[in-house]
Design goal:
Layout: E1 10-21, H1 33-41, E2 45-56, E3 60-65, H2 71-77, E4 86-91, E5 94-95, H3 101-110, E6 112-116, H4 127-138, H5 142-155, H6 171-184, E7 189-193, H7 201-218, E8 221-226, H8 229-235, E9 238-243, E10 246-251, H9 253-258, H10 263-277, H11 288-298
Helix pairs in contact: 4-5, 4-6, 5-6, 7-11
Length: 299
């Protein structure tokens, strides 16, 4: 089925989002160049500037850019780990920026899950306890949450490691624990911030393969941050390239690689363009979500 079809509803919508680190921002006017110049003159940092995009259910949307481009800040604005300065973040019809503290806590526990580069595991809890921790915060009874955690551990290939502690695991295994912890929450939306960038190339590819396999089963919606174009092309249905807090190009990986919007994007995609010229990549790369749709159609 075509991803452009209306049958794929939008799960996440970001409208005119700004994140500015600085003071005296209460009278900041996004559309006023003088207002922007004033806060910059006072030392403010425009980390995210007027970004808008939407992500449909079951889609993998990749955000990539150089270090300092604003991609991780943007991701953290979605669940308000960073408080946006202006704009809207609408998830499943609800504006996250309008939630009070209690609503925000419940939203983070039930409707969104994050996977970080540095795992974020609790060192004094074993694998099973780490995976079950989010369910404990929800108040799920012990026996039920442990059973759900065991099922998630099996899905990420860590059966038999339930009683080990993070310090006893390799980097790839710790990241598997982080993915299991996110999956067990049952959230529709996963936010992944360079989850595989600290791994060596072979383990990284294994983790990508595992994520593709899990997506076929779970059909999750993912916003995935990376600086690796090959990873973006392999996993993403659509991608956006960021520079200095702004989107400079958005499209499918194939569109961005073949038709870079400017010299900045062209430098990013140079190696992939050479592969295309050598006919070493497919015309339309098979992405995680496209594989999930094909699997669903066969069932």
């Amino acid at each position: 089925m075509d991803k452009g079809s209306d049958s794929y509803e939008v799960l996440l919508e970001v409208n005119g989002l700004w994140k500015i680190f600085g003071e005296n921002l209460t009278d900041f006017v996004p559309d006023n160049p003088d207002s922007i110049s004033r806060i910059q003159g006072e030392g403010a940092v425009l980390a995210v500037q007027n970004v808008s995009f939407s992500v449909r259910r079951g889609e993998v949307f990749v955000i990539m850019g150089l270090s300092g481009s604003g991609k991780s800040t943007l991701l953290r604005c979605i669940p308000r780990l960073h408080q946006p300065t202006r704009g809207e973040v609408i998830i499943d019809g609800r504006n996250v920026l309008e939630m009070d503290e209690k609503e925000l806590i419940e939203f983070r526990r039930h409707e969104v899950a994050m996977i970080f580069q540095h795992y974020g595991l609790l060192p004094h809890r074993n694998v099973l306890e780490n995976v079950a921790f989010g369910l404990k915060l929800r108040g799920v009874p012990p026996q039920e949450r442990m059973e759900q955690a065991r099922q998630a551990i099996v899905r990420v290939g860590l059966e038999g490691w339930e009683n080990y502690y993070p310090s006893q695991l390799s980097g790839g295994m710790r990241q598997r624990v982080g993915i299991a912890r996110a999956l067990v929450q049952g959230s529709d939306l996963l936010l992944m911030d360079e989850p595989f960038s600290g791994l060596d190339p072979l383990i990284r590819r294994e983790m990508q393969d595992m994520l593709i396999s899990l997506l076929k089963e779970e059909n999750k919606t993912i916003v995935f941050v990376t600086h690796d174009l090959h990873e973006a092309a392999r996993l993403g249905d659509r991608m956006a390239v960021m520079r200095q807090g702004e989107f400079v190009q958005e499209g499918t990986p194939a569109e961005v690689i073949r038709n870079p919007a400017d010299e900045y994007v062209a430098r990013f995609v140079a190696d992939e363009r050479q592969l295309i010229a050598g006919k070493k990549v497919r015309q339309q790369p098979t992405t995680a979500a496209s594989m999930a749709r094909a699997s669903a159609a066969r069932r």
